[in-house]
UniProtKB/TrEMBL annotation:
It comes from Orbilia blumenaviensis. Residues 9-313 form the NmrA-like domain. This is NmrA-like domain-containing protein. InterPro entries: NAD(P)-bd_dom_sf (IPR036291), NmrA-like (IPR008030), NmrA-like_oxidored (IPR051164). Coiled coil: none annotated. GO terms for cellular component: nucleus.
Length: 374
């Protein structure tokens, strides 16, 4: 594509159809970056429409291919200036993450932003469970810090829990909302293993990742080299979340602390992740971020136009539900369950705390109806 006047340089984005990465691409394209956007395929899988949207943006070039292919990796960063990298567990994530970082360093990338996550055993102690898909990201971060940071300025961002994890479908059991019967007042029931006062960090990944990452690039490595930045704009507990959804949708929202029934087929490795997350946050009430990281202050200073969960629930949640075939927002008394457990699994969701089965616990129920405040 032809460069637009005043181009800010070339930005490489990895796994470009993810929620974090697509947000970065949209903002970068809008303000004058040339974007080299890698993805596995633009013509196959559940994200073809998103790939087509990204390809239609000004100055965005899609690069199709596997990150396990050295030829793809070695050519991705040539002639580029900066990069935003969010790896997934497809393939050997540590090998892919380190090869990407080495290729970026060899190509002379001036600012590398890596989306990392907490290894709770290393950061908080061996008494905590091992989260395999988070630990691999942390291992890549450790490699960059020890081997490349002195030669390639790098910033590490840590995404909070995605607002759009909440869904009436089965692919994210920890965040699945059950549609309540209209004769019982309608609305939603959310069942999860969290204590009602356990606060969690939230991020509207599609709305806020892009502006935050672009501001970090604008500030440059002179401000952010080596820094860990928590991308979370609010901390909410289940009681507050119930109040937020009730206010936003004007529908009752019930939270129940109890065991979960997993209705979707999950890959074996992801099931291990799910069970560990349940223990980590449900039993141990562990901190989400590594020691020394506080939120939401840093993210709010970087990007002041963030979208909170209430605004998301009011303006976006019904649209996403309708797009996926739900009709409750139109006042239908019944909403057919169209998911059969065989739906495509979204690998990026492994990066958020979700989906689990917990043991028998006392049930704490918080029911919010009408305009009750929290």
């Amino acid at each position: 594509m032809t460069a637009i006047p005043g181009s800010r340089g070339t930005l490489v984005v990895i796994n470009s159809t993810g929620r974090q990465t697509s947000s970065v691409i949209r903002v970068a394209s809008a303000i004058g970056y040339k974007v080299r956007a890698q993805l596995r395929s633009a013509t196959k899988g559940p994200k073809v429409a998103l790939a087509q949207e990204l390809a239609s943006l000004q100055n965005v070039e899609l690069v199709e291919g596997s990150l396990s292919d050295p030829n793809i990796v070695n050519n991705l960063f040539k002639g580029a200036d900066v990069a935003f990298v969010n790896t997934t567990f497809w393939g050997d994530e540590v090998a892919i993450g380190t090869s990407l970082a080495k290729a970026a360093k060899e190509a002379g990338i001036k600012h590398y932003i890596y989306s990392s996550l907490t290894d709770h055993k290393k950061c908080w102690g061996n008494h905590l469970p091992h989260l395999p898909y988070w630990a691999t990201k942390h291992q890549v971060e450790e490699y960059i810090r020890s081997e490349l940071l002195k030669d390639m300025p790098t910033t590490f961002v840590y995404a909070g829990i995605y607002n759009n994890n909440f869904s009436t479908f089965h692919h994210l059991p920890l965040w699945e909302l059950q549609l309540a019967d209209e004769k019982d007042g309608g609305g939603f029931v959310w069942t999860a293993p969290f204590d009602e006062d356990y606060k969690m960090p939230f991020l509207d990944a599609e709305h806020d990742t892009g502006p935050a990452v672009i501001q970090i690039l604008k500030d440059g490595p002179q401000k952010w080299n080596g820094a860990r930045i928590p991308l979370a704009f609010e901390y909410l507990n289940p009681k507050e979340i119930a109040a937020v959804f009730t206010k936003a949708l004007n529908r009752p929202f019930t939270y129940k602390k109890a065991g979960l029934e997993i209705k979707a087929k999950l890959p074996d490795g992801y099931m291990t992740q799910v069970l560990a997350i349940a223990e980590l946050f449900g039993t141990h009430r562990a901190e989400y971020f590594p020691p020394g990281m506080t939120a939401p202050g840093p993210a709010r200073k970087i990007w002041r136009g963030w979208r909170g969960l209430e605004e998301y629930a009011r303006e976006v949640f019904p649209i996403e539900e309708a797009h996926n075939g739900r009709t409750w927002m139109y006042g239908d008394e019944e909403d057919e369950d169209i998911m059969d457990g065989d739906e495509d699994f979204d690998e990026e969701m492994a990066g958020s705390p979700e989906n689990t089965v917990v043991g028998d616990e006392d049930t704490a129920i918080y029911n919010y109806i009408g305009d009750q405040k929290h």
